[in-house]
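Please fill in the sequence for the structure shown.

STRUCTURE ENCODING:
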C-alpha cells in the first residue's frame, strides 16, 4: 500500500519531493495544491513537471477517494458514503507498513448540512465505534478501525461542496478522542496557515468523555467542545452508555470546569431526549446541579428511532417544558432541529451502509 500524502506537513512534503527527485521547494507546492487548491489527484498539480508528477504517483497516493454514494435529504442535507481501509491500532499511522491482517476495508459516512450561508461538514473519525451507546447505530455496529489523517481530510476535499464549507463538526462515525493522534493532525492541517487556514472557531469536536485525551484536547486545541451527556443521573446514564463506568460524567464535567469557556472557545452538551427516561424535572434539576457554574449551552436533540430499541423521542411539549425549566436556571438551552432524518443522516443514525438504488 502506497503512503498517502494528504495530512503531511510542508516539512514532511519536502522529503517527499526529494524522494521523487524533485527540488525541496516542491514540498510547499504540493502542500498548496492539497490544502489550498484541494486537488483530487496528483496529476492536477500542474506547476510540477509531468515527469515529477509521474514519479510522485509511482511512490505515493494523494489519499482522496471519491464517494461511492451520495443521498440527498428533502431538507438539502447530503450524506456521502466513502470506502476506507482502516486500522485497529492507531499506532499504525499511515498504514504503509501494516500487515494485511491489521487492516480492514470498511465504509464511513460524512454529512453536509446546509443552513442559509453556512455549510457544515459532519465528519467521521472511525469506522464503527468502541463506545457501544445503545441508542446509536454507529456504536451498535461495533468497531472496525481508526481512520488515517488522509481519510479524515479526504472527506473535506472529495465532496461537491468542498470549496463552500464554512464549518465542521467531528460528530460523525466514531469517538474522535479514541483516535486522538490522527484527529489532532487533521485539526492541525485544517487550522494551519499552510493548510486550510480555518479559524479554530469553525471547528467543534464532540466526545462522549474520554478523559485522558479530553485533557490533551483542552490543552492542545482551541476548537469548540461538545459533550454527549444524555443523562445526568449516573446509574441511568450507565444503562445507556457503558463509558460511564470508565469515565463518569461527573469527572468529565469536573475536568471541563478547570478550563475557561468565557471567551471565544465554547462548550456545549448534547442531550438526546427519550420519552419517560430522561425528560422530567428531576433530570432537568440534576443537569443544573451538574453544570452549575459552567458557562455552556445545552442542545436538546430529538431521538431518531432505530431498530430494536424500545424508547421513543420525547413529545414536543415535554421538550419545551424541559427547555424552559433549564432556561429558568439561567442555562442557555436550545432544541436542535433534526436534519437528514429521511436519509438516515441525523444524530445517531450513521452506520456506513450502502443504500441499494432502484433498478
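FILLED IN BY: designer on duty
SEQUENCE:
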Amino acid at each position: 500500500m502506497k503512503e498517502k500524502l494528504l495530512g503531511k506537513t510542508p516539512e514532511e512534503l519536502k522529503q517527499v519531493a526529494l524522494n521523487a527527485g524533485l527540488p525541496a521547494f516542491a514540498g510547499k507546492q504540493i502542500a498548496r495544491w492539497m490544502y489550498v487548491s484541494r486537488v483530487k489527484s496528483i496529476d492536477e498539480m500542474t506547476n510540477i513537471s509531468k515527469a515529477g508528477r509521474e514519479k510522485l504517483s509511482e511512490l505515493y497516493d494523494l489519499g482522496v477517494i471519491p464517494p461511492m454514494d451520495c443521498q440527498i435529504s428533502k431538507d438539502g442535507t447530503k450524506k456521502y458514503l466513502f470506502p476506507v481501509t482502516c486500522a485497529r491500532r492507531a499506532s499504525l499511522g499511515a498504514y504503509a507498513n501494516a500487515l494485511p491482517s491489521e487492516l480492514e476495508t470498511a465504509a464511513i459516512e460524512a454529512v453536509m448540512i446546509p443552513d442559509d450561508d453556512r455549510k457544515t461538514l459532519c465528519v467521521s473519525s472511525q469506522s464503527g465505534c468502541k463506545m457501544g451507546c445503545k441508542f446509536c447505530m454507529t456504536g451498535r455496529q461495533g468497531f472496525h478501525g481508526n481512520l488515517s489523517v488522509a481519510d479524515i481530510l479526504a472527506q473535506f476535499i472529495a465532496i461537491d461542496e468542498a470549496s463552500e464549507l464554512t464549518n465542521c463538526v467531528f460528530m460523525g462515525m466514531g469517538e474522535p478522542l479514541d483516535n486522538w493522534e490522527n484527529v489532532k493532525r487533521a485539526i492541525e492541517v485544517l487550522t494551519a496557515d499552510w493548510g486550510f487556514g480555518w479559524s479554530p472557531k469553525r471547528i467543534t469536536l464532540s466526545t462522549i468523555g474520554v478523559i485522558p485525551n479530553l485533557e490533551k484536547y483542552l490543552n492542545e486545541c482551541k476548537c469548540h467542545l461538545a459533550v454527549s451527556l444524555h443523562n445526568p443521573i449516573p446509574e441511568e446514564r450507565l444503562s445507556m452508555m457503558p463509558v460511564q463506568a470508565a469515565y463518569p460524567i461527573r469527572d468529565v464535567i469536573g475536568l471541563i470546569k478547570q478550563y475557561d469557556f468565557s471567551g471565544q472557545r465554547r462548550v456545549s452538551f448534547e442531550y438526546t431526549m427519550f420519552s419517560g427516561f430522561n425528560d422530567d424535572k428531576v433530570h432537568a434539576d440534576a443537569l443544573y446541579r451538574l453544570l452549575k457554574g459552567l458557562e455552556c449551552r445545552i442542545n436538546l436533540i430529538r431521538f431518531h428511532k432505530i431498530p430494536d430499541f424500545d424508547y421513543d423521542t420525547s413529545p414536543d411539549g415535554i421538550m419545551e417544558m424541559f427547555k424552559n425549566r433549564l432556561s429558568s436556571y439561567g442555562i442557555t438551552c436550545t432544541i436542535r432541529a433534526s436534519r437528514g432524518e429521511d436519509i438516515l443522516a441525523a444524530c445517531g443514525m450513521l452506520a456506513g451502509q450502502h443504500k441499494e438504488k432502484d433498478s
